[in-house]
Structure formats: structure tokens, C-alpha cells
Amino acid sequence: MLLPDAPAALTRPFRRFLLALVLAPLALLAIGVPTRADKASQPIPADTLAKMAAKGTTPAAPILLRAYKRESEIELWKRDRSGRYVPIKTYPICRWSGQLGPKTRNGDRQVPEGFYTVAKSQMNPNSRYYLSFDIGYPNAYDRAHGATGSAIMVHGICSSMGCFAMTDQVAGELFALAREAFAGGQTAFQFQAFPFRMTAANMARHRTDPNIGFWRQLKEGSDRFEATGEEPVVGVTAGRYSFAPLKDPDKEAAAQALHRSESERIAGLVEEGAAAVRTTYSDGGQHAFWAHRISQGFPVGDISRPEALAYAGQEVVLIAARRKPAPPAAMPESLWAAVIGPGTPFYPHRAAYRAPYEGGPAPRFAAAARYSETLPTLLRLALDGETAPPAFAVPQSSVEIVAQR
Q1: Which member of 155, 206, 259, 349 is catalytic?
Q2: Is the pLDDT assigned to residue 371 strictly greater than 90?
Q3: What are the UniProt keywords, alphabetically (predicted)?
Q4: Quick one: pLDDT at residue 264?
Q5: Could you give all domains of the chain from N- to C-terminal order, each with its CATH number?
């Protein structure tokens, strides 16, 4: 407090300081820069609202988020009027750290993988990284395996030590989406974190990875969501992810059918000779969208370990792809008839085999499964002395052959 007899010269700087304190927030509002007080209350962008309306949903409807490390993306899903979750928008991740695979200990820089729950209490409007929410690591599965660590966030600023770093603008939009869903009555939303998009092709390519057993568990949960559009009810049984059956028997049947089909598809890709790879990172990755924008000078804040991004997503081929030989082309019906029809050299041996279209196992020549295999088989057996060589007759004209049919 200034004394009454203080010189006027001493009060001028103090008056300017007080005036600056009063005018600074007003200036920020005038130029559109959000202050700490209102950044958490920013509206959902108009283009996102339009996408919601087009999919038959609203800002107050429940949300679900799905993250993919390999692709560096987070998907927004909203429940529509029918009760099914539908995709609304995909956001590029500016930075994530670590490797593909689950987080196991504090300080390993790993971004977690699994099924997590975000309640309203996990939202942080006063984050040092603009805005953030805690995804809920460690969950029951992580704790069952002795995993350590905490405070794994989706936040602003392009810097990660185990978090999903989204830049301030994207973090603000995700925060607004969660805020409106909570205001609409949702008590918590599910956050699904995957190493990559859980397609059959990706599962086949990573089949030799040490984490493949864990990823198969995530694949089951992903398939259930894809088949039904319902949030999977996730539990942990004997140290493994488990998923409660759906109340609707038709939806449960659809979930099981898709997972069975995907498992068969994976096995088929392996049988066909799909390559097996291991994807390695120096320290996490970044979406190509942000890499391009940053190269143009777009500000994203501090970028953690930018030198590591040059060595992100290096694929090491562990099993080279192989191509199975194409099956022999089928012999045209007209040629088939000309070879073994009545009056042809091989007609006496007609009873020794059947054409594929006749059905049933071949009585003698099981190897003769295709038209193109039959003639070579007969010739080889004749040369080996296992069957009498055919008696060659005078070739008939095609007109005569057709007439005898």
C-alpha cells in the first residue's frame, strides 16, 4: 500500500501495472486467444457438429474413442439414434512415444494398449499441456500383470513421454466432445488403444511378434465392437481380457461370427504366404499430416525427441512373403471330351477316374483332381508300369465324337 505522501513519480509505474492487469484479459478476449478460465468451455467446431448431424447423432450423445499407434490416429465414435456407435471423425496424433506393445512399467515411455475408461473426474481443464484427460492407466488387466505408471493422458502440445499428444487445437476439441457427452448424461466413456488397425492382414503380418498373444485378445474386443456397434463390456479373467456376451442373441451371434471369420482369414493369409514383419521405432511416431504441417512452420509447441521421428516405423521382414503356385488351368470341356470320349485312346481307362464335376472320390487315381492333371497322371502310371498303356485307336473326327455323345 502506498503512503499518502508518496511522490507522484513513484505512483505512475504502479498505476500502469494495475492498468495492465485489468486490460490484459480484455485484450486476449478481443483477439480471440482463450484464457485459462474459458479454454475448457470452447464450443465444438461447426464442421464436427455437421458431421454428427449427418450421422444422426448429437453433441449430448455418448462418445467412444479408438486410438491406433501405428497409424498415429484417434477415431471419434458417437452413439446414434438407433443406439449404435458410428464413426464421426479421425484426428491425427502429433506425437506418441515408445514401441508397439503394451505399457508395463513407469518410465518405459510406452503408450498403453488395451481397453480403458474415462470418467468426468479424469478431465483436467488446468493441464500444463493446454487441456487433457487421463485415460485410466493402469486398468485391471495392467494391474493383474504388475504394470506400473500413472497419469497417461490425451493432451495438447506435441510432446510425449507415454501419452497421446494431440496439439492444443485437437486436444481442445476432444475435451469439448467429452464435456458435452458428460453433460448429456454419459458417466464414463471407453478409450480403446490398439497397436495398429486390427485387420486380419495386420494380424498376419505381425504374427511372430512377442506381443501377438496379447494382440489377439485386443482383436477379439475390436471385432465385437465392429460387428455390433456396441461398447464391449470388458473384464479380466485369469490374466486375460474377457468380454461379456451381449444381451441380444442376434448381436452376440454376429460378434462371434465376425471374430470366427477374421480368425479364418488370418489363417488363410498365413497359409497363402503372407510376410511376417516386426515394426520398430526409435521412440514412437507421428502422423504424416503433422510432419508436413510442421515442415511448413506450423506451430505445435515443444516436440519431444524430434530426431527420433526419422527412424519411426521401420519394418524388419522376419518371414519373407511367398507365393503359392497357381493351380493348373482347367481343361476346356470340348478338349476333355476329345481326350477321353468314346473312341479316344484313353476311353478304356475311363472307369479308373472321375471328372471333378461328377463328385465322389476317384476310385483309382486320387491325384487326378483336375482336368489338366488327368492325362499326365495316366501317362506317368503307364511309363511306371502300374497300368497298361492305352490302346491307341484311329483318331475320329470331331463330328463323330460329338455324335457319339
Answers
A1: 155
A2: no
A3: Cell shape, Cell wall biogenesis/degradation, Peptidoglycan synthesis, Transferase
A4: 97
A5: 41-319 (2.40.440.10), 333-404 (no CATH)
C-alpha cell at 320: 519373407
Q: Which three cell numbers stand for residue 235?
A: 473384464
Please tell me the pTM assigned to this model: 0.74
Question: How close are the terminal C-alpha atoms of the chain, in Å?
Answer: 119
| List 163, 206, 287, 349, catalytic entry | 163
Q: Is 158 one of the annotated active-site residues of the chain?
A: no
94 catalytic residue (yes or no)? no
Q: pLDDT for 53-86, tens place per residue?
A: 999 999 999 999 999 999 999 999 999 999 999 9
181 near 60, Cβ under 8 Å? yes
> pLDDT tens digits for 76-116?
999 999 999 999 999 999 999 999 999 999 999 999 999 99
Q: 165: Cβ–Cβ under 8 A, 6 or more apart, which residues? A: 93, 94, 95, 96, 129, 155, 156, 157, 158, 159, 304
CA atoms within 13 A on the CB side of 259: 18
DSSP-derived 3-state class of residue 25? helix
What percent helix, strand, coil does the chain show, rounded to 5?
40, 15, 45
Q: What is the pLDDT of residue 385?
A: 62
Whether 394 contacts 400, CB under 8 Å: no
Which whole-number Å values give the CA distances from 273 to 205, 263, 324, in the listed order?
Answer: 10, 16, 7
Segment holding 86, helix H or strand E: strand 85-92
Total count of residues recorded for the chain: 405
Which helix (DSSP H) or strand (DSSP E) does residue 316 occupy? Answer: strand 314-319
